C-alpha cells in the first residue's frame, strides 16, 4: 500500500474516527438525558430497541437507493441530516419528541451504515482490503477508548445539551471531510437507476437469487450474525449481571468497561500484524470462537478478576473476528449489489435481534439473570464453534 494508493483511504479512516468519537458523545449524552428526564432505566433501554426497528423499516428499500446513487453524496447528506436532527434535541422538553428525533437519527444511521460500507468496498483495491479492515478496527477501538473519555470531559465542563452541540459540529465536520473523497458510483446502469416499487421488488428477487446460489456464504454470514446478535442481547443484561450477580460497585463496573476498551485496542494492534499472513475466513472463524469463550468465562464468573479476564478476552478477539468478517463479505458480495444485499441481510438480522433481546429479557422473569447469561453464552459458543468448522472446511477446499 503506497502513500498514493492510500491517500483517500486515510481520509476515510480519519472521517470514521471522528464520527465514532461523535457517536460515543451522542450515545452517552442521550442516555443520560433520557434517564434525567424520566428517571426510568426502562426508558433508557427502549433507546436500544429503536435501532433494529429502524433497520427493519429501511432495509427493504435502502439498498436499492444505495446501489443507484452516489454513495459519497448520500453519506454527506445523511451526516448533515443527523446533525440537524441532533440540533433540535437540546431544545426539546418532551420525552416523546426526543424519542421521535432519536428514531429519525437512527433511521438515517441505518441507511448510512450500508452506504458507507458499499463506498469503502468500491474505494479499496481488493488486495489491500484485509489490512485496511484491520486498521479500521484499530480506529474503532481508539474511538471506543477515547470517545467516552472525551464525552466525560465535556459533561464535566458543560451540560449534556452542550455536549450534543459538539456532536452537531462533529457530524458537519465529517460531512465536509467526506466531500474531499472521490465520487464513487455503483455499476448499476442508467436505465435501472430510477427508484420505483417495481425496481425494489426486482431487487428483492435478485438478492434471493444470489442467496440461493451462494448458500454456503449465506450460512456463514448468518452464523456470524447470530453470534453478534447474541452478544448484543447479552450486553443488554450486562449492567444487571454486574450489579445483581457480581455485586460490583459503579466504579468497579466502569473499570470493567475500561478493561474491555483496552482489550479491544490491543486486539486491533495484534490484528494489524495477523492480517499479513492469516486469511479472512480464519480470522473470522477463530476470532468469533474466542469471543464466545470470553463470554463463557464472563458468564460463569463469580469474582471481579474472572469477569475482567472474560471481558478482556472477548473484546480482544472481537477486533480480529470483525476484521475477518468484513473482508470475507467484501470478497463474496458483488460490489454492484453490495447495498441491496447488505441492507436486506441487515433487516433480517435486526428482526432476529429484536426477538432474541425480548426473549432473553422475558427469560429473566422465569430464571435467574446468571442462568440466562450462562445459557446465552453457551449457545453463542455452539454457534461460533459451528462457524469455525464451516470456515475451516472452506479453507481446506480452497
TrEMBL record:
Molecular function GO terms recorded: transmembrane transporter activity
Keyword annotations: Cell membrane, Membrane, Transmembrane, Transmembrane helix, Transport
Domain Major facilitator superfamily (MFS) profile, chain residue ranges per copy: 1-394
Matching Gene3D superfamilies: MFS general substrate transporter like domains
Keyword Cell membrane: yes
Keyword Transport attributed: yes
Transmembrane intervals: 12-35, 41-62, 134-157, 163-181, 214-233, 253-275, 282-298, 304-326, 347-367, 373-392
GO cellular component: plasma membrane
Principal localisation: membrane
Membrane topology term: Multi-pass membrane protein
Pfam families (alphabetical): MFS_1 (PF07690)
Localization (cell): Cell membrane
UniProt name for this protein: MFS transporter
Protein source organism: Psychrobacillus psychrodurans
Amino acid at each position: 500500500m503506497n502513500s498514493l494508493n492510500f491517500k483517500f483511504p486515510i481520509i476515510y479512516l480519519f472521517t470514521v474516527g471522528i464520527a465514532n468519537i461523535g457517536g460515543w458523545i451522542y450515545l452517552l449524552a442521550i442516555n443520560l438525558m433520557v434517564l434525567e428526564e424520566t428517571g426510568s432505566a426502562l426508558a433508557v433501554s427502549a433507546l436500544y430497541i429503536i435501532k433494529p426497528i429502524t433497520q427493519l423499516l429501511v432495509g427493504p428499500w435502502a439498498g436499492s437507493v444505495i446501489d443507484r446513487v452516489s454513495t459519497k453524496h448520500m453519506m454527506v447528506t445523511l451526516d448533515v441530516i443527523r446533525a440537524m436532527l441532533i440540533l433540535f434535541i437540546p431544545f426539546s422538553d418532551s420525552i416523546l419528541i426526543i424519542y421521535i428525533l432519536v428514531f429519525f437519527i437512527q433511521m438515517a444511521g441505518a441507511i448510512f451504515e450500508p452506504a458507507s460500507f458499499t463506498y469503502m468496498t468500491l474505494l479499496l483495491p481488493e488486495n489491500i482490503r484485509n489490512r485496511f479492515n484491520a486498521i479500521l478496527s484499530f480506529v474503532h477501538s481508539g474511538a471506543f477508548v477515547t470517545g467516552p473519555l472525551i464525552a466525560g470531559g465535556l459533561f464535566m465542563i458543560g451540560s449534556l445539551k452542550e455536549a450534543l452541540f459538539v456532536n452537531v459540529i462533529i457530524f458537519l465536520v465529517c460531512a465536509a471531510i467526506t466531500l474531499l473523497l472521490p465520487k464513487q458510483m455503483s455499476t448499476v446502469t442508467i436505465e435501472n437507476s430510477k427508484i420505483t416499487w417495481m425496481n425494489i421488488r426486482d431487487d428483492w428477487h435478485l438478492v434471493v437469487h444470489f442467496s440461493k446460489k451462494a448458500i454456503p456464504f449465506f450460512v456463514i454470514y448468518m452464523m456470524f450474525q447470530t453470534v453478534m446478535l447474541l452478544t448484543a442481547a447479552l450486553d443488554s443484561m450486562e449492567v444487571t449481571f454486574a450489579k445483581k450477580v457480581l455485586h460490583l460497585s459503579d466504579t468497579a463496573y466502569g473499570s470493567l468497561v475500561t478493561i474491555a476498551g483496552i482489550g479491544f485496542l490491543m486486539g486491533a494492534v495484534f490484528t494489524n500484524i495477523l492480517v499479513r499472513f492469516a486469511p479472512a475466513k480464519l480470522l473470522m472463524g477463530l476470532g468469533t470462537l474466542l469471543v464466545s469463550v470470553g463470554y463463557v468465562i464472563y458468564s460463569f464468573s463469580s469474582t471481579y478478576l474472572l469477569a475482567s479476564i472474560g471481558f478482556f478476552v472477548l473484546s480482544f478477539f472481537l477486533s480480529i473476528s470483525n476484521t475477518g468478517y468484513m473482508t470475507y463479505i467484501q470478497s463474496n458480495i458483488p460490489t454492484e449489489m453490495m447495498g441491496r444485499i447488505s441492507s436486506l441481510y441487515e433487516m433480517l438480522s435486526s428482526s432476529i435481534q429484536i426477538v432474541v433481546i425480548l426473549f432473553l429479557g422475558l427469560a429473566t422473569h422465569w430464571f435467574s439473570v446468571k442462568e440466562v447469561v450462562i445459557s446465552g453464552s453457551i449457545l453463542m459458543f455452539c454457534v461460533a464453534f459451528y462457524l469455525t468448522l464451516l470456515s475451516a472446511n472452506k479453507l481446506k477446499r480452497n
